[in-house]
Amino acid sequence: MERNAEDFAAKYEKVYQDMFRFALYTLKNRHEAEDVVSETVLDAWKGIEGLKDENAFRAWIFRILANKCRQKLKSYLNRAVELPPIWHGGNVTRAKIWMCGRHFIN
């Protein structure tokens, strides 16, 4: 597919809402979802000439989005935080948590 801004914008407008919903559902954070969608659109624009079938635009851009979301989730795991020891009635417990958006996973 040739790089044509008007065609790209028209196709993007058709899928934007679904892309944002997918990213928000996956990342559970509005700001992260907006960032990932923006990064996806930029990468898609840069690589649009590699798209062979115009009818596959939706699947193609969603594949880019899914990979970006997966990378973002992996980056959350790299930000694991070890908590200080906690005293529980004679037992000392160490815990690690991972922050995923605004949610904590123990």
Structure, described:
The chain has 106 residues and is α+β, with helices and mostly antiparallel strands. 58% of the residues lie in helices and 15% in strands. The protein contains three helices and five strands; from the N terminus they run αααβββββ. It has a three-stranded antiparallel β-sheet. β4 and β5 (103-105) form a beta hairpin. It starts with a helix and ends with a strand.
Distance between the termini: 46 Å
- What is the number of helical segments per DSSP (H or I, 4+ residues)? 3
What is the strand content?
A: 15-25%
Quickly give the structural class: alpha+beta
Largest sheet: 3 strands, antiparallel
Helical coverage, percent range: 55-70%
With strands numbered from the N-terminus, the spatial order across the biggest sheet is 1-4-5
Unreliable sequence segments: 96-106
Order of helices and strands: HHHEEEEE
Write the layout of secondary structure elements.
Elements: H1 5-27, H2 30-47, H3 57-77, E1 81-82, E2 86-88, E3 91-93, E4 96-100, E5 103-105
Antiparallel strand pairs: 1-4, 2-3, 4-5
List keywords for this structure.
three-stranded antiparallel sheet; 106 residues; alpha+beta; two-stranded antiparallel ribbon; 3 helices
At a glance:
By secondary structure, this protein is of the alpha+beta class.
